[in-house]
Amino acid sequence: MAFAIIGPHLNRELVMRFHLFEPRAEAHIRKSLEYLEEANLAWVEHQAAAEHHAALAKMYAERIARIEGELKNAHQPRSMLMRQPAEESRDDSERSKAESVVVYPSRTTR
Question: Where along the chain is composition biased (Basic and acidic residues) (predicted)?
Fold first, then answer.
């Protein structure tokens, strides 16, 4: 009722001003699409990082097993090591990983 008293021209101006504060569907959809694209990119990046970390975890698990095996073989008595077949009779794929372990003299043998 107050608008009718002020006049039709001013009434239209007030309606236009209040229209600016109403939610605009197009702008909201556009912004939502930007957020969706950003979320999809972040998902892809995190998937790639997860695959990388899984590969690293597998590599370290294999490394731990290999080093533990080398340590186990390094602690075997010399008589057990002498019973192994000669290097010429073994092929490279069967070669023991213990050969890569350098056995340092212990402090008690010095």
Answer: 85-98
